[in-house]
Amino acid sequence: MTAPSISADTVRRLPKAVLHDHLDGALRPATLVELAGQAGHALPTTDPRALADWYCEAANSGDLVRYIATFEHTLAVLQNREGLLRTAEEYVLDLAEDGVVYGEVRYAPELMVKGGLTLPEVVETVQEGLAAGMAKAAAAGTPVRVGTLLCGMRMFDRSREIAGLAVAFRDAGVVGFDIAGAEDGFPAADHLPAFEYLRRESVPFTIHAGEAHGLPSIHQALQVCGAQRIGHGVRITEDIADGKLGRLASWVRDRRVALEMCPTSNLQTGAASSIAGHPITELKDLGFRVTLNTDNRLVSGTTMTREMSLLVEEAGWTVRDLRTVTVNAVKSAFLPFDERTALIRDVILPGYEAAL
Q1: Is 53 a known ligand-binding residue?
Q2: Buried b (16+ CB within 10 A) or exposed e, 37-73
Q3: Is 143 helix (H, G, I), strand (E, B) or coil?
Q4: Would residue 296 count as lying in a domain?
Q5: Cys-Cys link to 239, which of 189, 190, 249, 349 (CB 3.0-4.6 A)?
Q6: Which residues contact 33 (CB under 8 A, 6 or more apart)?
Q7: Core vs surface per residue 124-145: b (16+ CB within 10 A) or e
Q8: Is residue 321 marked as binding?
Q9: Which of the four pLDDT bands, split at 50, 70 and 90, describes residue 1?
Q10: Inside any domain, residue 9
Q11: Using CA atoms, how far apart are residues 345 and 266, in angstroms rounded to an integer?
Q12: CATH number, domain at 192?
């Protein structure tokens, strides 16, 4: 029996949660054009529609290094207070328009200090912009809560310093930490001092792993560094054969380690071959705590509504499947337990019940 189709409008209205989304990969094309003009930064094109197409073309190259290189242009406009404030505020409003009720946005403060801002000033400015966006979204009747993850970069040596920022701002909207950047050749364990410090300070963290590098990267992130979640993690399937789980895959499933999966982005970087065959469906069916995410809205040309719709159309997902990954995301959010429970009970479940 085929699953009943789900209308695009139904998908759009479903309450959503996103855990893996990069601020510097989520600018509106028109905003990027305007801010680049003010900064004197040359873009591939100054036509917003053509610029969006350029990003998608570059992202669809199947090369993670080229995918990451597109951030040169977005980062160029995030070096001053105006750019950070506007981007953060618009980011929240775009989440609200997408039906997101809870989101976690991540960025690397160390990449945003070329204009003279200090690291604390970068964080303070982004938080100010996010707060402004949340206030406007609430006033418009589409409330959304957004927490921040601060990223250290794998290829640099400031991760301990950025971890200190996460601790300093944990009562001001920063909910956790991440290590980002090129995965292959830059092991997470190089940043053990940051992770050990965060554990001592009881600050949760996730680690990009299992995207450009395989099982050893996931194992190191979990068993050496102590990550509570895994960014992407698609290559955990290399430890699964005919539905039988190996030791690492069993650990991930049994300990309910959330996998922050990003189907469109994974196709673009070559970590997956199709939406229909993306590991998220197999892992969901095997009982893993998979979550659905956008990764980079501008760079991947996507939204949560689009990611959900693709899985419905190409992988046969149902409303119940979408509810599962949404509940998974809230359960794994870097929020206090009672707040997660209330969000699931009062917002997520009623929103899906209306669509069933």
Answers
A1: no
A2: eebeeebeeeeeeebbebbbebbbeeebeebbebbeb
A3: coil
A4: yes
A5: 249
A6: 43, 46, 47, 48, 51
A7: bbbbbbbbbbbeebeeeebebb
A8: no
A9: very low
A10: no
A11: 31
A12: 3.20.20.140
Cβ neighbors of 197 (< 8 A, separation 6 or more) are 160, 163, 164, 167
Measured at the CA of 269, the angle between CA 263 and CA 274, to 5 degrees, comes to 45
Query: Catalytic residue among 89, 183, 211, 307, which?
Result: 211
Clarify whether 211 is annotated catalytic. Answer: yes
Neighbours of 324 (CB within 10 A): 18
The pLDDT tens digits of the residues spanning 302-351 come to: 999 999 999 999 999 999 999 999 999 999 999 999 999 999 999 999 99
Q: Is residue 223 part of a domain?
A: yes
- For residue 351, give both structure tokens: 């929103």
Interacting residues of 339 by C-beta distance below 8 A, sequence separation 6+: none
The C-alpha atoms of residue 209 and residue 231 are separated, in whole angstroms, by 6
| Residue 233, phi-psi category: left (phi > 0), alpha (psi -120 to 50), beta (remainder) | left
CA distance between the termini of the chain:
17
Instruction: Assess contact for 211 and 20: CB atoms under 8 A.
Output: no
User: How many domains, in total, are found in the chain?
Assistant: 1
Does 24 show up as a binding residue in the annotation?
yes
Instruction: Determine whether the annotation assigns residue 191 to a binding site.
Output: no
* Range(s) of the domain holding residue 103: 14-333
